[in-house]
Amino acid sequence: MPVGARGRLRLAVVVWAAVCALAFGVSGAASAGYSLLFAWGSQGSGPGQFDRPAGVAVDTSGNVDVVDSGNNRLEQFDSAGSFRFQFGVSGVDSGRFSQPYGIAVESAGRIDVVDSGNNRVERFDSLGNFQAQFGAAGSGPGRFDAPAGIAVDGSGNIDVVDSGNNRVEQFDSAGNLRFQFGSAGSGPGQFSSPTGIAVTAAGDILVTDTGNDRVEVYDSAGIVRFQFGSAGSGPGQFSSPTGVAVTAAGDILVADTGNDRIEDFDAVGNPRFSFGTSAGPTGVALDAAGDVYVTDASADRVEKFSGSSGGGTQDTTPPTLTATATANGNSYQGGTWTRFDVVVHFDCMDDPGGSGVASVTQDQTVTTEGAGQSVSGTCSDRAGNSTSATFSGIDIDKTSPTVSAPDVTVDATGSAGAAVSTYPVTVKDNLDTGPRLACVPAAPHLFPIGDTTVTCTATDASGNAAGGSFTVHVKGAAAQLADLAAAVAQVGPGRSLEATVEVARWFLALGQPKLMCLTLAVFRLEVRAQSGKTMPATQAAALIADATRIESVVGCTT
């Protein structure tokens, strides 16, 4: 809205009307002749975002120019609502804006913008390069007080709504004042904070008399012809009307801002129907196909409606949404384990010729451990159709398994050592019930007499690994003879068995294996003689087996 006291009053009326509409459920459904195709934009200052968009115009190439008033810039979009470029920043120098409002595009492509806060009109080429300006603050000829709407007639003359001065001023194509008309009041040819303006093919000038809730129609010389509309919410009535446009058929479209609708009138001001979905429509413009563009200042967006001539086709088909995932930069398939965060990406595609993608869920990163996790996303097109997709089966395990590996002690069974068939290694994992275990050397393995280190690595399904090691100690003949001596202590009559083993140990220590073998043979005979008498037969059998195993280690021959 233009700045100044009247502009602030009009803005307050618009905001109050929007609040009332939300509170009391004013309907905004599209009616006969026009249907919503799609909308674009959101609140913000980035490309394609808006802060209270105001005027809108369509150039001969079908590009849509939108005055982003709160961000002090102009943004251009293609007819599908895709951002093309922007120009303008806040300021008072040439090419800068302060609360810009109205816009008009000349046939040659030049863009005229009403810089309301700076009380001037600035002119740019089709790429947004500053060319010229005219106007200054004041009430004299050629000056402005919070100017608002702007229109260019078939002769290239520029009509500017001087809202604060309650008049319309017409300039030639070079920006020189030609004449002015209007004054403050509510009678014919008078205004109360006028806002929008449009010129018919015949040269008639239409002005929205916002404060008087009406539209006044003048001839090309500024002589009032007739007026239509009154305060209210019924057909043909207004509540703070703002933008106005004329269709190729001569119908008059008025942004009935306070009633949250666009009203369609015939060429002489008879109401035909209303349409719209916005709360607080401000600007209205048409393209060559008859499609209608409306700036929705309250929702910071632009809405596109199909033309009554069938220029557009309503989009009722939801877009297609696919969800894919990556882990550590590589493609990830659901239902498989990973030790990395999983990033789920959503791709939204609209059908060719559809309204285009409006929004899609951004990438979602899953960082927590667990099995069977899922992420859902949605996407919507500009016609309001939406769809959703879910990526399921996200299995994340970042914790390594634990390995418990106690040392192993075995008796050599021959001169080569002892064979160990299995290892007493225990592996635990918080999520994987069956981690893989690999040991070096792998079991079964023949270990030599002495100590050998075994190294094991446990790996879970996500690739987390943990290691552990243990020692396999293989007892030779000397150690086994010591164990045998301990086993026969206090066994049998006297200490004959113990004495025999000690002799065998003595011969082994002296490097006399043959004498040790003969001594163990005597030991076995003594044990057999006492079996079932001084000792149980099972004990005797175990002692004989121990002696025989020691003989094998030393290499005794029978």
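the 2nd protein, sequnce then structure:
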Amino acid sequence: MRTFETIGEGFDASVGPGRLDAGSARGVGAKVAAWFLPDLALVCALAAMISLFAGFGGATALFRDSDAGWHIRNGESILAHRALPVTDAFSFSKQGAPWIAWEWGSDLLMGAIHRAGGLDGVACLFGLGIGAAVWMWFRLNRAAGGSFPLAAAFAGPTIATSSIHWLARPHVFGWLFLIAAVWWCEKAPARLTPGGACAIALVSAAWANLHGSFLLGPAILLIYAAGAGLAIALWGVQRPVAPYLYLQAALAAVLGSFLNPYGWRLHQHVLAYLTDSALLRRVGEFQSFDFHSAGAGWVIAALCIGLLGGAAALSIRRPERFLLALAMTAAALVSARSLPLAAMALLPLANGSITEVVSLAGGLRPRLRRHLDRALIYSEKLGVFDRKVHGLALVPLAAVLLFAVMRGHAAFPADQIPVAAAERIASLPASARIFSTDKFGGYLIYRFSARRSVFFDGRSDFYGVNFIDGYARMFEARPAWRQEFERWNFTHALLPPDAPLAAALEASGWHELYRDRTAVLLARTVESLVQGLAPGNTLTRGHVGQVANLPHGAAVGACPLGRRPMGREADGTRAHHHNFRCGLDLRGPADMVSLRSHGGAASGAPYFHNGCRARFDRRTNDSQGGSQVGRRAGKRHSERRHPRREGRAQPRGSLSRERQ
């Protein structure tokens, strides 16, 4: 019970009403100032965004992964049709195949932002998302009982490790939910109310519709339930939060995740994808990180701190932190994609565990103990001051300034994405079948607003193992690559200049339409068409169409098998025509294959006679010729070049084959 003297301590009778009003004014001023003075979390979040757009490569660095392209176009398609896609509309290789757009919520958000602000708006969205993740990371340090100096020290490894996936892709939203899940587990209430359970379910539903990492939510809750149970079993420590509360929360999270357009099929699809080791071995971001690369020291430091924190957690009887450290470190060593998750979840917990171990450490030399105590007291004072401010009023201002600074600068990086080559592709017919890498395919979907179908893009879960194996066989020009390549009837190829397939196609006679340091665009020629046929195969109008669809400037008349290249002007340059007809020069040698060039409709559509087929026989090899292909372009052309034989009229579109 407090005495009168105690109550009256510090009371100054000289303080009048005016001084009380002044104190109240100072209190109001302090509250207002708290909205404009940033805390450490906001300072580091702003520093991370400045680092992203000033030192990390600018807004273009966010789009170095072209998957952002098809995410944006899918979101715009959802907005336009007011429905989710059911089948694939982006590729010609699997057009019409069933497709689960499992990140449709993020796609919708990206599409809406892109409609309003273009790529600048999308870059601003993900820049703010990365800043929000850093802000939440610092707040998690405080929730875990970490010290102020250690939080500042651990910020470097965390930001450096997470920066490997600073991309305009939905996984950034997954980071926010991951930190929120660990935060809730650290500050879980002693009792889960029905309202709290509903809130967990709604958050889990939002996570499930934005990114496939939603399964981490129930998994983390189960780990904390197991840790609380182990603490009771091993040390008899009864925590304020019982294990069953985490189980209840995990059940609410699981039930909430079913609130998505696909229901249980979403869970089945995500689990099938993440457990398909054969497929994940073929996806680059699921491979182990290269610890010999530049800057790998930051990543190693983050993993070591996480493991050290796990060991410290055991000493303070927090087995749930130890279990989480083991699980996430193992995932980070297996897959580079899990490295940012480990840094963001484990380092704040390591801060809290290490701080508590240091504060409780006994048996130390008195001088060392005094220094540690002073450091802890100083850290606590800094934390008290830091908790008095937050600076949230600066966030809208920072967002406006961020958008203004980057306006007009957000773009796909031309040194990694075929931005310039796409301008040349724009002149090709819409029916052109272009072989391209998955990275190039994602950009082509964006560049042509999904009006031009692609062969391959970054949706590895959609294409599957067999397709990716066939793609790899072609791209690396492995044995039997030509059979796989010809199966798709490609008319063009867009490849990195150093790709093995690019060299193989050029050696097969493919014509170069465009080249820069990023990409080379090749087009099929008559020579490559003939070389692509196996002995005894048939040259169909579909094969001829692959050449007939070539754009202006392609070397369709320069086939070395033909003795007299057709379609050339008097000065030796090839004449540009809109239409081509396949014809045979009967007066030439037997191994002559030529494309007769006739001025046609400006539409550029190829012209074929009905029933156009010709047998191609190869006696020896390509260099020796041996092919006999006969075809007449039409009645008028045939009568002009080759008079009709008596008693045998040859109908329009028929084929002839003569021996020399």
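The radius of gyration is 34 Å. Confidence is low (pLDDT under 50) at residues 1-20, 535-539, 548-660.
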